[in-house]
Amino acid sequence: MRASSISTEDLPLQDEIDAVVTTALDQLKDVQLDALDDWRRSYLGRGGRLNALLRSIGSLPAAERPRAGQAANAARKKLGTALKQREAALSAEGEGDVEQIDVTIPGYRTNVGGLHPITRTLRDIARAFAPLGFRVVDTPEVEWDEYNFEKLNIPPDHPARDMWDTFFVKNEARPGAMLLRTHTSPAQIRVMEQIRPPVRVLAMGRCYRYEDVDATHESIFYQIEGLAIDSGITMSDLRGVLEYFARTMFGRDRKIRIRGSFFPFTEPSCEAEMSCHVCGGEGCRVCSGTGWIEILGAGMVHPDVLRGVGYDPDRYSGFAFGMGAERIAMLRYGIDDIRNFYRNDLRFLRQFN
Amino acid sequence: MLVPIRWLRDYVEIDASAQELAARLNDSGVEIASVSTIGAHWEPDKIVVGQIISIDPHPNADRLTLPTVDTGGAEVRIVTGASNIQAGDKVPFAMEGASLVDPRKNDGSLMKLRAASIRGVASRGMVCSPLELGLSDDHEGILILPEDAPVGVPLIDFMGGDVIELDMKPNRADCLAMLGVARQAAALYGRSIAEPDTGRERNDRSVLPDLKIEIEDPGLCARYSAAYMYDVAVGESPVWLRTRLEQAGVRPINNIVDITNFVMLEMGQPLHAFDWAKLTGNFIGVRSARAGETLTTLDGQERELDPENLLIVDGEGAVGLAGVLGGLETEITNETTEILLESANFAQTSIRRTSRGLGLRSEASRRFEQRLSPETTVHALRRAVQLAEEIGAAKGVEVWEDSYPAPREIPTVDFPLSEVPRLLGIDFPEDDVIDTLARAGFEVEKSGEGMLKVTPPYWRGDVTMKADLVEEVVSLIGFEAIPSTLPTGGVTDVVPGELDPREQALRDVLAAAGFQEAITYTITSTERMGVLVHGGTDDGAFDDLGTELAELLLSVPADAIELVNPLRSEQNVMRTTALPSLLETLSANLRFTKRDAALFEIGPIFMPHDGDLPDERRVLTVISGAWRSELGWDDSSEVDFFAMKGVAELVLDRLGLSDSDYKPFRHPAFRVGSCAVIVAGGHLIGAVGEVDPAVRAAVDIDETAWAFVLDLRRSFERAADVRSFRSLPRFPAIVQDLSIVVGTDVPSADIVATIRKAGRALVDDVRIVDQYRGEQVPEDKRGLTYSITYRSPERTLVDREAANCHQRILRALQARFGATLRT
Lengths: 353, 823
What we know:
The complex is a heterodimer of chains A (about 350) and B (about 800). With about 350 residues, chain A is of the alpha+beta class.
């Protein structure tokens, strides 16, 4: 105990103090409520035994007095605490029969709100990519055809336009030129037009699809677009980044496989599949028995797109990828109907708090 | 496109199963939608081709008959209710134990066929309808097989098999043909291709009538080739041809049309057959339509044309919409004896515009929209004429005329092998690269150290540059060869347009305060937003502050961004205010939520901007129903102005805008007297208050509703992000309450300001504790109680100092507002 350790070597009063403390604590064990005050007086009172010892400090050599004083104070504090504890224990006992609270009744709940599952998903995705240096941007939802298509290597009347069902916006001065963006890819152009490599950005935001709503289709959706441009960026970097993402979001054991695909603004283009996070690749309902889940489209940014924003495609290369937030959220939370997201039914929204 | 494996095997030897081949094609970028089997449940020994030998009447039922079927070795008598069969017909015959689709269920589930006695006669099998075979939902009659169907052969061998469905991406026009898919498979498996047989040359020009072909603009039609067919006998195609077409999802029509469809499916080149006798002037022209010109197309519709449309014309006028649909008048009929067979290459854009403009999309137009090679036109004619002779449909001359004004050159690509590792991060050996490209039909030549000259085959117009070749190599070798690395290199500079992290901070504050985030549609209608200004916009509805607020985020302008092609009329403009969407959301939730119907959204509104992109203003909208829960199991309290204002203050505190001012205003969306605009640094940034009862009634909310709206850009511009530290108080405080009676027209904010001013440095804090209106004070007055904290930064105050200060404050309030001490 600290009180005795203060005075290890030949402090004259220490033994006496220790003896008083030992006796006092020993007695206290049996003291009842009505005798507590007597105990207090006899040890801690003005005429109590500790004070008696304190008074004799004056007879010690001046150099030893402070240490002796400290030791006596420590003893006083110790006894004081013991007294309070005994008092509390006795009074609790005195209350007689204890009433047992029904601990199975739920506690009072403060009403807390929460974030939309898409917001949560976007945040988690941004957080997954942040350590790799991706900065998060958003660009306009109402866009020019030029940014949504032409600068992405999709000229007017190109059959690739069929890949995007588009809402067009009335514009008297430039009929047909304004639309609701069908993907976040215009952000690639808007970012590259403003900064020079190295580029690492994540564009996130709402996109629109001219399509009737059913369990798997919505006319609005959130897309996450990644773009990394520098000299020396390769498709193996793309694969590594996607693997890092899949492991962060869906667990350490996730693997990525890629296969060929087509997007007008990437060459080579690919689709990435993730080993199923539900069955681990064995095959289950979520992955339709294949063990793999398609999560995104990607590719190396097309040389014409780079050239269009003034980047030399022989000097710079890079990758882009795009995925749907709803799909990621549906996979993570096991949501089976996309329409839930924008109905904003509190009974749905609160499930993710 | 449907690719029957059996058809594919005509061109390439593939041992792999359909599933395996499909996976391989899919990995290489030729996307597969599905793999299915025609007749997956047709056991070879249970369902065979049968022939009706005779049909006897049923002794006990008028509607039933008793056909006897030759099953190729046995004769079986059965009972049937089908009326479309006659003796001699070939039919699918199912024996006892066969699996058939159950016609009584609508889900395609199977049943086992059992022997049965029907009205006293035993039936030991069944003749099948297309539905029972799982071919279609047709259960009207028995499927009558072609006359030359071999009796006794398992039906699966006769007309079943695996079919791969391609989900074509617009880059690989070559794969809109069996031959193209076969070439891809051959390249993947290292096999050779057996080109379709075109037999001997058929170029006897002595039988040819005169023909002149004229192309007005080679930019719209690169090549127009024509074959001549004579001794035409229009009729039904042989079974093999019909089966081929059916398995590929194309309905057989007659032998001539079937041949054109077959060649299109095989080679990707659409063909069109004109009845030569009905063409005039020994002339075919390709030109743009003149304004006002009309054509009656094959479907019987008379169509008004415009110069966007490319036409095929004869000596008199339009006979076809080039690449889209032929004309009715020159259609092949049973009387046709001579044919002009067209095989042309039209410009993608022109075909696409015409087919979209007229709403006519055909297998032909779909292919012309892609980049087809002009090289194919003549190959396709050879094949068609050969087929016509083979099946006895006609004789022919392969190349009658061939107009190809500017032959297309195939560009050679200089391909440094270093491009492969530069883009992929993996280096393939030079020989592998050369070999892989060669397998896919590319001509490869070494042109220097690490340099290749590569010429793509004519059918691969999609390959024009280095990156295309890199893709070709990796898709054939396999993307799985690519390793996994993380990018190295520099850090990205600050990017314009980065998301403001304060939006996230506000979301967190509001969630903690009990509000649930919503994301609502940004596409709405003027009517739906119009609920906000229900009472019209007459003079009394708005005051100056209300007008300013409206312009900021609560207006319904006539020139809102409008969609050209809305999905429905109540979703046709981009919202200029977010409050109505949140009110709708609140209304929907109040149907089942009695309390804590409290929501918020952070998102854009779209303010029109003179034909330029709209100004996308980020706004916060917070909304609450009348009741919220309190601590306890079932306790609640009614939301009032101060409850909602408290939420606003919480948000503004987070932005360092705690000292914002609140002022009464008038806007029809808010209930007069129960709302305030929020002013920060002299600028209006938002508003808080009760939603006007008429507004909420318009969206079916029948309890009080509260709203807080905030313009985020303006708020962020004025926000103080970094707080300044204030030392913790070192001396104790003296707290005293001050209760006064004052006129109802004196704003509390003015009283607090006076308290602070009169108390000088000793007033550390002033808080409102209570507001009283009622019997104890006159009607035009109210009681206000403040708790004032007195403290000196330099020393411990003595009671007398605080009391003196308190008196000074009271005197100032008396002097300025006529306040009296409330006792």
